[in-house]
Structures are given as structure tokens and as C-alpha cells.
Design a protein that fits this description.
Layout: H1 3-63, H2 84-120, H3 123-150, H4 154-158, H5 160-170, H6 180-196
Helix pairs in contact: 1-2, 1-6, 2-3, 3-5, 3-6
Length: 203
Amino acid sequence: MSINEIVTLIKDIVLGLCALGTVSVAVYGVKNWARELKGKADFEVARLLIRAVYKFRDEIESSRSPMTLPNEFPENYDPHNRASKYKAEFWSYVFSNRWKPVVEAVYELDAQGLEAEALWGADIKQLIQDLRKNAQLLRVGMQAVVDNEMQDNENFECDSDLAKKMRSRVWKSMREENDEITLSINSAIEKLEQYVRPHLKRN
């Protein structure tokens, strides 16, 4: 074998090793890039989901305010009108306006929940449902109060336990240990935070 042939062979080997090194670096770079993209998507979905969870909590709490402010009253409201139908319409008006932001929060929670489920699987869906059910409890309570007013307080007079339960759903208690909705929301949020927290760490 001549020197020229040896040099050519060494050159070919070096070029082959360089090409192999380039391919290895490219594969490593693509894997890193893919991992970074997944990490960014994971983080963004987690961030938007937890924001929707907190918004839901805040809107539920706001809608359960035990104080009804004058700006919540219907136009031309007459506080001296004690007719059952009038009182029922008053509460229906107040609750409808309080309910609107809750509905928007539920829509946002559902939308973010679907994205999270697509990335992380069905476990997150149940955790979101455990939180979301509190909106339903609140709505049932609101409707029960309106129905009771329409019946001139007969429904609640006949069943004091029902009265206590429905009113405690509609109006937030000062004592948290007696507040079904607050306890349920706090428990659901704690579980969601534990599930989502690892996804909020950037890789």
C-alpha cells in the first residue's frame, strides 16, 4: 500500500468519524429540542389550568357573599314589597347576575381541563370534576332559595335541615368547618395543586 493510499484511507476514516459525530450531535440536539418543547407545553398547560382553578374558586366565593349590595338590586326595587313572587324574582335576579361569572369560570376550567387531559391522561379529569361539582351544588342551592321564596317560605319551614343545607350552599359561612362548598373546594384544589406542581417546574 502506497503512502497516498494510506493518506486517502485515513482521510476517509476521519471524514466518516466526523459524519458520525455530526449525526450524533444532531440526534442529541433534536432530542433536547423535543424535550424542551414538551416541557414548555407541559408548563404552559399547568400554568393555565391552575389559573383557571383559582379563578373558579374566587368566582364561587364571590357569588356566595352573604351580603347583598344595593348595586345588585334590580332597577326600581321596592324593599317594602313582601309578596312571595316579588321576593322570588328579586333573588332570581341577584343569583342570575352572581351566576354569570361562575359559568365563565366553569367554561375556562373545562377548556384548560381538556388540554391537561390530552397531555397527562384521565386522572386529571376526575380531579377537575371533583372541583367543578361545587358549581352544581351552588346552583341547586340558589334554585332552592328562589323556589322557597315563591312558596312563601313553606319549603324551608317544612324541612329545617333542607333550609340550613341550601342556605349554607348559597351564602358562605363565617365558620369554614360548617361550609360544605368551601371544604370541598379546598380539598379539590389541594389535590389538583399536588398533581400539577411537578408540571410547573421548567426542565
